[in-house]
Amino acid sequence: MDLPDRTSLVTFVRRIASAMKKPFSKMPEALARLLIVFAAVIGLTIVVVKFVIPPRFKDTRIQWAETTKQEAAKPVQYAGAVACTECHDEIVAEKKKGYHRDLSCETCHGPAKAHTEDPDNIKPPAPRDRKFCPVCHTFNPSRPRGFPMISPVAHNPMKACFTCHNPHDPKPPTAPRECSACHGEIARTLSVSHHVQLKCATCHNAPSRHRVAPRIVKPTKPSSRDFCGKCHGQESSYKGSPKIDLATHGEKYVCWQCHYPHLPEVE
Amino acid sequence: MMDRRSFLRKLLSSLALSGGVLGGFLRILPAQALETAEPTGTLWGFGVSVDKCIGCARCVVACKAENDVPKEPFFYRTWVERYMIPKTGDAEVTNIHMGLSPDAEVPSKPIFRSFFVPKLCNQCAHPPCVQVCPVGATFTTEDGVVLVNEKTCIGCRYCIQACPYGARYLHPATSTADKCTFCYHRLQRDLLPACVEVCPTQARVIGDLNSAASPMTRFKRMNKIFVLKPNLNTEPKVLYANMDGEVR
Question: What pLDDT digit, counting tens, does each position of A225-251 carry?
Fold first, then answer.
C-alpha cells in the first residue's frame, strides 16, 4: 500500500468537485423540484421531532422519573404495626409477652389504613370463628417442625378458638398431660411401629417446664450407643429384639442418627 | 519482500487504528475509573428464610389487597410454592394460591421432605425484562427496583416471556404488564412492604443492601445465602436463606 503524495491528492479532490457540479447543471427541472420537496419534508420532520413534540413524549428518562413519582404516590392499605401502638397500647403490651409477639396486628385484623383515618366509623374485622386460626395452625407436613399445629377436625370441634385461647397471648389453657397433645404425628407413627410399647419417658426426659415453655426447655434424647444397647446389644438379656455387636456396628454414630426410633423398621 | 521501514510503518499505523489500543486508552481515562466508585444511596434488597415459611399465604392475600391485584384466578405479584420431594424422582411443585385448602393436594408418591418457598420479583441487577421491552416502558430506579410505566406499556407480553422467574403478568384491567415493586409506595413512606408486614414468622425481610446497619445486612451475615437461577447471571436482589437445592 503506497500513500499518494501531496500533488496527486490535490488533483484527486479537484476532479471530484468538478464531477459533483456536472449532475446539478444537467439535472432535469422535474427532478430538481422533486428534490426540493424531499428536502422540505425532511426539514419539516426534523423541526417537528426536535421542537414540536414535547420532550416527555420522546425522552424515556423523563417518563421514568414520572413513573417513579406516580408509583410512590399510590395509596396505602396496610397502616403498619407502629400505627396501632398509638391507641391500642394495652393490647400491644399484652401481645409483647406472648408467642404472637412478632405477629403484626394486620395479619389477623386485615388492612387498617382506613381505620387509622376514621377510627370511629371504620372498624377492622376480628376473626372469631374456627376458620381463621387454622390457616396457620392446621397440621401440614410441609410446615416446619416445631410449629404449633392441630387437626381442626379433632381439636375441640364445637368451640371457637378464642373461647380457650387468647389470640393476643395464646397459651394452651391447661398444660398438656400427654405428649401426644402436641406431638400427634410422632404418636401416630409410633402406634404402628415395633416400639409401640415404649413410653416416651423411656427414652426422653422431659422437664416439667417443657410443657409451658416447649421451645425454651427441651426434652433430652439418648446420647449414647449403650442406651439402645440395653435391648439391642449382643449381651442384652432382653428377648424379642434384633441384636447387633455394638463394637463393630455403626462406628461413631449414635443409633438414632441412622435408625428412626419412632418407626425403626423404616429402611 | 518488505523492507524494515515499511514494515514498521504498517505495524504502528494498524496498531494505532485497532480497537484494542483505543479501548485500552479509554479504560485508563479517569472518567471511566470513577464509575466503579463506592455505591451511594439506597439499594433495596429482600430476604426470604425458606425454613421459616409456614405456608399460610397471608403475604399473598396482603399483596393482593395492597396492590389491587385481581383476586382470581392466577394473577400474583408474590406467591408461595409448596415443594413435595419424593424419595426418587422429581419434586412436585404446587402453588398454594390464597391459602392451603384443608384437604391440601395429596402427592402421587410418598413425601420424603417438604417445604414452602415464597416467590416474588427478584428485582435483578441485570433484568431480562428491561432488555427486551421494545418501548422502554420498564426500567430500574436508582434504588434498584424494577418498575413498569403503565402509560407507555403496550401490553405486548414480551417481558412476561423473558422473565426467567415467572414474576410478571398482564393486568386484565389495564392490559399492561404488572409485577412486584417491593411495595415502592410503602418504602417511600418508611413502611414495610405489605407481605413483610403481615408475615407471622418473619420469613420475609427487606432492607438497604448498601447500608452497614440494615436488616438485609444482618440477614446476609447470619445466613447461608442463595439466589434463584444463578446461572443466568441476572444477579437477583431477592436472597434466599436455607434454601433446598431442588428449588427452581
Answer: 889 999 999 888 888 888 988 888 887
